[in-house]
């Protein structure tokens, strides 16, 4: 009996040592350099983020503006890159005349002087809209951007042409697989070196379609993020990277990261070996992954020498923090 107990204790000790050695960062290589910054919506007007729902009109909750840029415009994207963004995120909607409009909202009514579902309009119609029409920081007393946003809604084609050598993250706002087909056709028409700069995330159905039709494009959806995280937490201690974690974009909240086997360097090296990229987010508290690394306090939750991806909603502030 005692002999069996000793064998069991020895086996447990050997197993624990193997898990430790396979996941300790003491034996992991570390990539030097500065973090890779992903600017959510380029440089945008900030808004009160408390108690948001899918129906919240964020333009009506704008904080006092610190700059004149409107999100998802060529000007805001260029400013985002100039302020230190390595990647800029844009939102797309298909239009009735075969284009993709760069615009965040499902409906036009909040931000613009238009009405109705965004994807039910032509690009010709939306080019005539004022995308700064609905912004107010004082409950509707003043609208500082009215008139400034006329004609500023770009097409995806214009963005790709303007930034052929810059990295972009495209957000598909729908769950329509046909939108995935249309976007895959646009991306597959690009030169290979341009496609390497593009990532796509969004609804499960269009992302599954893009993964099938444009398999070289890195993608992410709620389903793929969940599948990767659960599989990695389940058996990532072995050093084996789950298939769900390969050729993908992974979003990791800072309060979840320490629970990942081998965080930071072992985990990040494994993801990189699987042709995947990782971006750290702010804390996950349920709902959508929209909180960015936007303050010194959140940046401090990452390793001091962290050199992989960071998702930020405030590229102006985070770009300065990276340089310090």
Describe the protein.
With 324 residues, the chain is α/β, with parallel strands linked by helices. The protein has one domain: Phosphatidylinositol (PI) phosphodiesterase (TIM Barrel, Alpha-Beta Barrel). The chain is 32% helix and 14% strand. It is built from eleven helices and nine strands. The chain has helices spanning 2-23, 74-82, 123-127, 156-162, 177-188, 192-195, 204-213, 222-235, 265-273, 296-299, 315-323; strands at residues 36-39, 87-94, 100-102, 167-172, 198-202, 218-221, 249-253, 277-281, 309-312. Strands 1, 2, 3, 4, 5, 6, 7, 8 and 9 form a nine-stranded mixed β-sheet that branches. Helix 5 runs parallel beside helix 7. The longest helix is centred in the first third of the chain and has 22 residues, at 2-23. The chain starts with a helix and ends with a helix.
Write the layout of secondary structure elements.
Blueprint: H1 2-23, E1 36-39, H2 74-82, E2 87-94, E3 100-102, H3 123-127, H4 156-162, E4 167-172, H5 177-188, H6 192-195, E5 198-202, H7 204-213, E6 218-221, H8 222-235, E7 249-253, H9 265-273, E8 277-281, H10 296-299, E9 309-312, H11 315-323
Parallel strand pairs: 1-2, 1-9, 2-4, 4-5, 5-6, 7-8, 8-9
Antiparallel strand pairs: 2-3
Give the tally of β-strands.
Answer: 9
Overall morphology: elongated
The N- to C-terminal Cα distance equals: 61 Å
CATH class: Alpha Beta
Number of DSSP helices? 11
The fourth-level CATH homologous superfamily is Phosphatidylinositol (PI) phosphodiesterase
What do the pLDDT scores average to? 92
User: Which CATH architecture?
Assistant: Alpha-Beta Barrel
Helix/sheet category = alpha/beta
In terms of DSSP E residues, the strand content is 5-15%
Number of domains: 1
Order of helices and strands: HEHEEHHEHHEHEHEHEHEH
């Amino acid at each position: 009996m005692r002999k069996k107990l000793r064998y069991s204790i020895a086996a447990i000790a050997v197993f624990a040592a193997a898990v430790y050695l396979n996941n300790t960062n003491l034996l992991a290589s570390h990539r030097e350099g500065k973090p890779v910054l992903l600017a959510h919506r380029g440089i945008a007007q900030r808004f009160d983020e408390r108690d948001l729902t899918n129906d919240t009109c964020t333009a009506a909750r704008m904080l006092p503006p610190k700059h004149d840029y409107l999100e998802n415009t060529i000007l805001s994207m260029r400013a985002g890159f100039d302020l230190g963004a390595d990647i800029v995120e844009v939102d797309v909607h298909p239009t009735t005349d075969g284009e993709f409009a760069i615009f965040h909202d499902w409906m036009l009514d909040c931000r613009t002087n238009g009405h109705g579902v965004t994807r039910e309009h032509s690009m010709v119609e939306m080019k005539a809209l004022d995308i700064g029409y609905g912004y107010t920081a004082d409950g509707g007393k003043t609208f500082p951007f009215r008139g400034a946003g006329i004609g500023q809604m770009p097409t995806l084609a214009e963005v790709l042409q303007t930034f052929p050598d810059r990295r972009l993250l495209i957000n598909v706002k729908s769950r329509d697989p046909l939108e995935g087909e249309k976007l895959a056709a646009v991306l597959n028409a690009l030169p290979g070196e341009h496609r390497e700069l593009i990532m796509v995330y969004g609804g499960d159905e269009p992302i599954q379609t893009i993964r099938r039709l444009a398999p070289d494009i890195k993608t992410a959806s709620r389903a793929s993020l969940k599948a990767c995280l659960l599989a990695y937490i389940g058996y990532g201690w072995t050093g084996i990277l789950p298939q769900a974690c390969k050729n993908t974009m992974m979003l990791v909240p800072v309060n979840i990261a320490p629970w990942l086997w081998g965080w930071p360097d072992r985990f990040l090296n494994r993801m990189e070996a699987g042709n995947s990229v990782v971006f750290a987010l702010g804390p996950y508290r349920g709902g959508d992954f929209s909180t960015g690394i936007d303050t010194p306090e959140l940046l401090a939750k990452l390793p001091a020498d962290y050199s992989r991806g960071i998702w930020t909603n405030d590229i102006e502030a985070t770009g300065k923090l990276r340089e310090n």
